[in-house]
Amino acid sequence: MMRTNVIRPSVATRLRQLINRIIDHDIFGRAAQLSYYFLLALFPLLLFLISLLGYFVQSGTGFRAKLIIYLAALMPSSAVTLVSTTLDEISKAAGGGKLSLGLLAALWAASNGMGAISSTLNTAYDLKETRPWWKVRLVSVALTMSLAVLIISALAIVLYGGRIGDAITGSYGLGDQFRWFWGLMQWPIALLFVLATFNLIYNFAPNVRHSQRRWITPGALVGVGLWLLVSFGFRIYLHFFDSYSVTYGSLGALIVLMLWFYFTGVAILIGGEINSAANERREQGAASRASGK
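Predicted structure:
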């Protein structure tokens, strides 16, 4: 049996290849397209989340306040102010059917955004869309609903983790050590939900084969890390150099929000490029092993 030596590229070579892929696929331009869809999906989705969780816990106003506080940990302060003000206006204008209307609007708008992500990730994976349009739409809606469940779960753990921990402690007779451990693990568990969100997008949004899907992908790890890094970095930058209100006036907060969406799109798409490169290396390795038999 013959063995073939597979030459593994260095880290610098892989980095150059990744940069070339990002440039060739116009990732930064496509991220700008995604930011538009993210903006359309944000407010209906937030209205639905507030209405739904507020209905279950019977504290919609309190939940909204907590949600805004935790959004402020990631989003720039001026963008958070814009989101809070817009939510107040939407809530006052909406009637009793805002839950169902918010759900329908969120599903439609967010599924449009998911469709744009699918198209962009197909480019990153060097794939052509062979699925019929109705299947792409169904996949987009199903992904949107799945991501909503993951987001709700993450928010429930972060916002109501104390109550959940107390309930578990009381039900199973656990002591203060478990309560301390649970309080320590709330944020890592919520981060796992975010990681699962990225993995779902990478595995089902593009037109990839079943054999190419992985439960944990390197692109998801890098994408989440990059998203957190650029989010906190952008907040620090705006804390010291916030000149958008001077340049754009009252539109400054909207510009900041769109920029944050833009950076989010860049993180998602770069993660997709990393996964695509990893898939290519696996296929080349499999081909080399097969040829050496």
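Summary: The chain has a mean pLDDT of 77.
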